[in-house]
Amino acid sequence: MSTLLPTLEAAGTCAYDIVSLGEVMLRLDPGEGRIHTSRTLNVWEGGGEYNVARGLRRCFNQRAAIITALADNPIGRLVEDLMLQGGVDTRALVWKPYDGVGRRVRNGLNFTERGFGPRAGVGCSDRGHTAISQLQIGDVDWDRIFGAGGTRWFHTGGIFAALSDGTPEVALHALRAAKRGGACVSYDLNYRSSLWRDIGGQAKAREVNRALVPHVDVLFGNEEDFSAALGFELDGGAKDFSQLDVDSFRRMVTRVRETFPNLALVATTLREAHSATRNGWGAVCAGGDQFWQVPLREIEILDRVGGGDSFASGFIYGLLEGKDPGWALECGVAHGALAMSTPGDTTMASLPEVLRAMGGGGARIDR
Fold first, then answer.
1. Which of 174-178, 305-309, 316-320, 327-331 is the least confident region?
2. pLDDT (tens digit, 9 = 90+) per residue, 6-53?
3. Which fold has domain 16-358?
4. pLDDT tier for residue 170 given thresholds of 50, 70 and 90
5. Which of the residues 180, 181, 243, 340 could staple to 238 if both were Cys, CB 3.0 to 4.6 A apart?
6. Residue 196 to residues 49, 109, 165, 206, 250: CA-CA distances in angstroms?
7. What ranges do the domains of the chain cover?
8. Do the strands 278-287 and 290-300 form a parallel or antiparallel pair, or are they unpaired?
9. What's the angle, vertex CA 300, arms to CA 122 and CA 269, rounded to 5?
């Protein structure tokens, strides 16, 4: 186990290896078509925080649970069924009474098209007044989830925190409860301008995230998050982290960790979008006076949504297994690349495939 992290509970000693807090939406996918011209839509479940728990369950065989809320109607029951198929424990799922038309509470929908070549992917969320945005601290039995022998790891993020005026308070309560219970805590900044635009924009995002990050051990982000969600501007005139040299990134992370000395590890994916289906993909991580990097390499993409979440689940798996952050970083990059080779938000990869990709295995048929 990395000495940078708090001591993790031993495997098999807790009810869960990973618990996530966040919204789970119904994703409506036009496949190879466009949202505005589609006549048929495939359905998946997905959500930034949930995807991490599901990835750890389905690919890495970790015991996973989700804290979320759904409106009690057939759409909510469909989302529940999809989560059950994903193997994620739903005992902490809160059902909110449905009013018949969704005036007071409803379930979130996420229309997502994948993009191809020069045509970028498109997402159109329909998630106002959702059940999870109305979650109250008293709705959840935090002592059961985070008490002694509860969970080894807790994960949440900036998407959940952006859903309403009340969700930052719930997130803060959960982070504190997880820490009291001895869990290692991770948080993905996951800045989405569409979520913050109507409630104060970047200024509000920075206010909320800066109040939550002091309770975190492992911080995830991408090339935009540290600036938009925390207010740490990139140096050297670069527009994103893919244009920064290693020394520039170290300086930026140093500023983050000086501001938040509680952070044991800071990890970010790197992406260069040559086209919707051809990206450079890599990652970097800093902790203590050490720095780890997986250089950008070109990958082909079928569906990029959820790639960062799958990176996080692979990275967390490595740390749960007692691997050093360099190994965990390689695992996260490999898992994220494989997850983006299949449709939907959530992973369809297996652990042997991840290990093969980490070892440089090619795409020859496996038979």
1. 305-309
2. 788 889 899 999 999 999 999 999 999 999 999 999 999 999 999 999
3. UDP-N-acetylmuramoyl-L-alanine:D-glutamate ligase (3.40.1190)
4. very high
5. 243
6. 17, 18, 11, 10, 28
7. 16-358
8. antiparallel
9. 75
